[in-house]
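Hey, can you fold this one?
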Amino acid sequence: MTTPNSPELGDSWPGAEGREWSRARRGQGALQTLEVAGRTAAVSGREGRAWRAAGADTAAGRACPPPPGVPGEAERPEPELVEVEVGSTALLKCGASRSQGNLSHVVWFSVHKEKPAPIFRVHKGQGQSEPGEYQHRLSLQDKAGTLALTQVTPHDERIFLCQRPRSQEHRIQLRVYKAPEEPSIQANALGVSVNSRELTEVATCVGRNGYPIPQVTWYKNGQPLKEEKNRVHIQSSQVVESSGLHTVRSALQAQLLKEDKDARFYCELSYRLPSGNHMKESREVAVPVFYPAEKVWLEVEPAGMLKEGDRVEIRCLADGNPPPHFSISKQNLSTGEMEEETTDDNGVLVLEPARKEHSGLYECQGLDLETTDSLLSGPQQLLVNYVSNVSVSPAAPESREGGSLSLTCEAQSNQGLEFQWLREKTGEVLERGPVLRLHNLKREAGGGYRCVASAPHVPGLNRTRLVHLAVSGPPWMASKQRKLRVREHARLNLSCEASGHPRPTIAWNVKGTASEQDQDPQTVLSVLSVLVTPELLDTGAECVASNSHGRNTTTIFLELDSNRTAGLSTPTVGPHARANSTSTEKKLPEPESQGVVIVAVTVCLLVLAVLAAVLCFFYKKGKLPCGRSGKQEMERNTSI
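Sure. Predicted structure:
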């Protein structure tokens, strides 16, 4: 066997084996041909016919039949298929294990572009690579003659031949595979219009670095898409990288409908590996679909019954994308015409706070800026529930002590109303109904009363009115005053509180700086700043409260206490600790000081008695001279 531009195989093998190979080759005749991929070089003799019969169609991997008229020739067997992934090692065996024969002398060829070229030689079990692209990637794997090709690339996908002496060559078809990267998908961000008469690109899918070329399938909502005239077109292109790997780009073009506004698209890459068939899916994408509106309508928030004080938003909606330009109009009750309302930048009419005047008929108009078509919504009635004009009669209620009074509450509303009366000071519910009746009024009954008018069918809708009841009578003084212990020449604040109707005025009987504070419309607090003097300690201070019904006083006495300092005197008065009489504090000895005096006197008497007993004892013993004058002195001391 010879190859173009290659020496006789026998020339490269020394010894008897080489000579035997050469004699066999010379006995076959002159120059012969080797058929590779359908092309034939000129040969002669019987050996040429054998080479033609054994030639390979490397592109298709199919055996070619022998030339007609040549008896005894058998069909060439299919090449052995070896599959391997890029980057791994391919193991090439020169025939089946049972028919490997003599493997001590083998020549390996690679067929590239229909030309075989020697790449590796085995002589007496020792392997040697030929110079070229495979020089550093081939090695003898074992004694069985297995050839190992490392770091397989897509360029290695070809037919390899091995030739032994006195044997037919063995062909191996090496198939190379590489899984592509995860597919990337990009949707048309500009969107697709349903009015377009041409197919528009929906999305593109790219699968990189696969081998062989992966197949791309498009899906919409989980269903595969196929070519459809004037509806779906899939355009694919491939790029061969310098590494021999393929990058495929597929563009989906389609005519979308309004129903596709929520459609989800994705692509799938199908590829093969030695382990079998596989596939990878991209993420799902949505594409903006533009379509004209067919109807518009109004939406009001919040939903349900509205009331005065709510924040109400009225907006237009449409079933088109993009939405048309909106305007909102309200019916003028006087003319019956629809008048456009002022909306915010988003076309929303905001009513804040909502009032009963906002009730009425509203409608929305949508203008398609592309087609200039105009659509009108149906009219919608807006109702703002209200409670207004809450009033109480009499507006300024007044009564004398012991009298009776009725308060009547009225209000206006588009809903049925319920009334209740509350005491402002305590929050106590006094009456359920529009009329509050008060009998045998006392001074404590004076103060605030609140009428609450509410619409039970509209949660949170109510209005109130507050009135102040004045119970007339002479001033009412604060009680439970405490006597003040002060330090002489100290600055002291004295306080006096009085209430009544009409509002009382307060005067002091001592000089000082007075200031008044209104506690409520019928109560006043007066604070007097004075200097503690001996005269003030003797007389105390008196405040006088008076109005048109009479007068009342409170007297404050002071007591000197060197161990304490003067401070602010603020009487502590509870709402029920009041009396319509003068509250006086008198300078009387306290029970505690009287007890101390009694104990002191008793102790002194006991001491004197003991002393007298001792003196008498010494007198009787004669140790103390005692005449009449001495006895009289003793009796005088005992009587003290």
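The chain has six helices and 51 strands. Let me know if you want another pass with a different chain boundary.
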